[in-house]
């Protein structure tokens, strides 16, 4: 964890042949991905495509039936990997503890593991909240925050560990358009400021095409295409095109 070569740069993430079945139904069917250090990589696709199951594998909540996941070429199951690289997850709901203030939520990891003195933790919490535009919310309770503010507080909590890889689970779900733009701006700012690698699982087309360096489209447990936003937009596949251009049109 204290390797100086790992302190300020994002890490690469490799997914090799991941397969997963539940009750005899194969959900992931040989997924291969390469996420480059420091890029914003978005995995998108329709509901039931395997996005959430893949994310659970990336954060260690599920183990594959076959295949492996690597960070900078090292298996995440290898001894010492968890301590060598710093990874954080921003949950879809924000997952703030309602009994703690926003500041206490953000500093919880440092407090629980006694990694810093109380004074140092207060300073770090203030810095991270200011970075996401919430410096005045430190003493508020989660119930006093809007949905967008909760997501930004969750990002501040992730930043406390100075992550090299941040995984986002539907970061703009249930947010209004303006709040979604703020979250997108935060993700872009983090790339510029700390060079973190960001992997986003989302069905939000505006977010994906607004922030991604590259996009992977997944359907029925398989990666259909990977490319820049422009390349994905031009990808000649009926399903991808229907997903990208789906819109409700009211009949006159």
How would you sum up this structure, described in words?
- Helix 5 crosses helix 6 and helix 6 packs parallel to helix 7.
- The chain is α/β, with parallel strands linked by helices and 252 residues long.
- The radius of gyration is 19 Å and the shape is globular.
- It folds into two domains: 161 residues, P-loop containing nucleotide triphosphate hydrolases (Rossmann fold, 3-Layer(aba) Sandwich), CATH 3.40.50.300; 65 residues, no CATH class.
- It contains ten helices and ten strands.
- The chain has a six-stranded mixed beta sheet, with helices on both faces. Strands 2-1-4-5 form a four-stranded antiparallel beta sheet, with helices on one face.
């Amino acid at each position: 964890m204290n390797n100086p070569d790992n302190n300020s740069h994002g890490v690469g993430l490799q997914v090799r042949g991941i397969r997963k079945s539940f009750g005899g139904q194969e959900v992931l069917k040989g997924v291969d991905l390469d996420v480059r250090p420091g890029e914003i990589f978005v995995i998108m696709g329709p509901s039931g495509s395997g996005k959430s199951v893949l994310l659970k594998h990336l954060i260690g909540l599920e183990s594959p039936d076959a295949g492996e996941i690597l960070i900078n070429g090292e298996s995440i199951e290898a001894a010492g990997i968890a301590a060598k690289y710093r990874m954080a997850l921003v949950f879809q709901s924000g997952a703030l503890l309602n009994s703690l203030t926003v500041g206490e939520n953000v500093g919880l990891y440092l407090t629980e593991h006694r990694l810093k003195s109380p004074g140092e933790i207060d300073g770090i919490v203030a810095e991270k909240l200011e970075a996401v535009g919430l410096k005045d919310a430190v003493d508020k309770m989660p119930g006093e925050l809007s949905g967008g503010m909760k997501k930004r507080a969750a990002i501040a909590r992730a930043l406390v560990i100075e992550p090299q890889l941040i995984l986002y689970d539907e970061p703009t779900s249930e947010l209004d358009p303006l709040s979604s733009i703020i979250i997108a701006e935060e993700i872009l700012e983090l790339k510029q400021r700390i060079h973190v690698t960001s992997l986003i699982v989302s069905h939000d087309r505006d977010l994906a095409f607004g922030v991604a360096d590259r996009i992977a489209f997944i359907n029925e447990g398989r990666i259909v295409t990977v490319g820049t936003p422009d390349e994905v937009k031009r990808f000649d596949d009926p399903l991808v095109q229907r997903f990208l251009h789906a819109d409700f049109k009211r009949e006159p």
